[in-house]
Write a structure and sequence with these properties.
The protein is α/β, with parallel strands linked by helices and about 260 residues long. Helix content is about 35%, strand content about 30%. The chain has a single domain, classed as 3-Layer(aba) Sandwich (Rossmann fold), CATH 3.40.50. Strands 1, 2, 3, 4, 5, 6, 7, 8, 9 and 10 form a 10-stranded mixed sheet that branches. The chain is globular.
Length: about 260
């Protein structure tokens, strides 16, 4: 993997999440997943570790009323459909903040009275009934400035924030910017791939975040309620050096 001196440099050497093919794959697979969950077969859908963890968080946040959620990078709402399927009585409003192209696809295909799509925080926060929970699930490392994004989320002042599947390193004091290469078919929930669309490689900038940068910011106004073990450490070769990374997850509560 190559190391870049800035997010902009990595972006010039990568695809983006505005790629129309990614939008098509994610929206198509989300539609299929939504319809599966609503079917007779979907009533017996299995629950994996990540889903069980997500269900635990939603159930913990409020016990006396449905939870209103602001999700950063929720694509076309797969997490909403999954949690609304397993815990329908626990979900209130679910607002997704995404890139303009993904948000537009969400509004066109999936938006209803419970799930809505926005391309900016201010528009979403202004109409969300209760600032209960922010979810950032496997997304901070793909933003242009993860630490600034975390600061922006904390500044919104929600009671709870759930950060999960976030790539960090314990042995670096500055962000390491590289890029992730995957198959187009890896995007979106489940396996069905749109007919007539050829699979290919796609890439996006990826920032490995110093864990201390996250923990130091959280500790100012929030307390960690739960930390989640989300896989072991792995070593990746970036340029000429080997970097130990891991994925972290935690639920924090405002003091």
């Amino acid at each position: 993997m190559k190391e870049y001196d800035s997010f902009g440099s990595a972006l010039k050497d990568s695809d983006t999440y505005e790629d129309p093919a990614i939008i098509e794959v994610v929206s198509s697979k989300t539609r299929g997943y939504r319809d599966f969950l609503a079917s007779d077969t979907g009533q017996h859908a299995s629950i994996n570790r990540q889903t069980a963890q997500n269900m635990f968080v939603i159930s913990y946040v409020h016990s006396n009323r449905p939870v209103d959620v602001l999700e950063l990078g929720g694509a076309c709402g797969a997490s909403y459909y999954e949690l609304n399927h397993f815990l329908p009585e626990r979900i209130g409003q679910w607002f997704v903040v995404e890139t303009p192209a993904m948000a537009a696809a969400g509004r066109e295909i999936f938006q209803d009275d419970k799930i809505k799509f926005f391309d900016h925080f201010s528009a979403a926060v202004s109409v969300l009934k209760n600032p209960d929970l922010i979810i950032a699930q496997g997304v901070l490392q793909y933003t242009s400035n993860p630490i600034q994004m975390l600061d922006d989320l904390l500044d919104l002042g929600f009671r709870y924030m759930y950060i999960t599947r976030t790539t960090v390193s314990d042995r670096t004091k500055r962000p390491i910017i590289t890029k992730q290469v995957t198959s187009l078919s890896d995007h979106g929930p489940g396996k069905p791939f749109p007919e007539g669309l050829a699979d290919r490689q796609t890439s996006q900038p990826l920032t490995i975040i110093p864990f201390e940068s996250i923990s130091s910011r959280i500790s100012v106004d929030y307390d960690v309620v739960f930390s989640f073990k989300e896989g072991g450490s792995r070593k990746v070769l970036i340029g000429s050096r080997t970097v130990a990374t891991r994925e972290v997850g935690f639920l924090i509560e405002k003091r």
